[in-house]
Amino acid sequence: MAYGSRFVIKQGSVPNLVLGIAAVGGIYTAYSYIQSSASSQPRKVFGGVAGSLTLEQTEDINHNTKRLRFAFPNTRDETGLTVVSSVLTLSWPKGSLTPAIRPYTPVSDLSKPGFIDLMVKKYPGGKVSTHLHSLQPGDSLFFAFGIKAYPWIPNKHDHVTLIAGGAGITPLYQLIQGVLDNPDDRTKMTLVFGVNTERDLLLREEFENYERKFPDRFKIVYTVSQPEEGSFVRKGHVTKELLEEVLPARTGKVFVCGPPAMENALTGKGRGASGILGELGYRKDQIFKF
Hints:
With about 290 residues, the chain is an alpha/beta fold. The protein has two domains: about 15-30 and about 40-150, Translation factors (Elongation Factor Tu (Ef-tu), domain 3, Beta Barrel), CATH 2.40.30.10; about 160-290, Rossmann fold. The protein has helices spanning about 15-40, 125-135, 170-180, 205-215, 240-245, 260-265, 275-280, and strands spanning about 50-60, 65-70, 85-90, 100-105, 115-120, 140-150, 160-165, 190-195, 220-225, 235, 255, 285-290. The protein has a six-stranded antiparallel sheet. The protein has a six-stranded parallel sheet with strand order 10-9-8-7-11-12, sandwiched between helices. Strand 7 (about 160-165), helix 3 and strand 8 form a beta-alpha-beta unit. The longest helix is centred in the first third of the chain and has 25 residues, at about 15-40. The relative contact order is 0.14. Residues about 1-15 and about 20-40 have low confidence and may be disordered.
């Protein structure tokens, strides 16, 4: 599962979808190249089919996660994406007969021109994540188009709760950036981030910088199932008791993104199920799962 978007493809539709995207993408990429060569005007890269982008640099975040920066054809080009959005990628992992389609949520500032950053966790046996981790600067990846994940409206809620597990942190980080970097948005936020080990606390430095900068608006709660010896980080999982302790009154919106088992525990599985959040008094319409 790639976090950041719920993208469902009906059985039997993959070949036609792939061929359609590839054909349109080829035409669009050629057209964009001609246009960019003839004009220095910036464009919205994800205003349509984006085409192939070149990997500019890679950064090892931890033992199984990389940050990949893809450059736009023109350094003044903009993403054209809005908070909260993901991008649909097509790649051809080794041994695959057909291209693999995966959505990823960018972790770079969407307003910055010239590039887009993806944070990719490598999963055991994961063909796509293994392929992306093998890419070197100068290699390319095909980007189909942007996907609007949630229509965020500044100041619609006084407070929002963000609950993430593992690599599910990426769409929540994009939302946090979009809110706290916007001087006109005064929304308060509480992030509950559950992981296996402390090295799995992706974007920890960025979160703690935000907490120092906005102490009255942004609060972080980490919970680690296997913390290091002597660590001051809370030990455990995202439980009902933890949420009862750290969350404010049951108002506002709750955003959830994480492994299926965690999401099922929080929101319930099947018709009528409410999960932990329901037991705490949150209504279904208050909860959004990425």
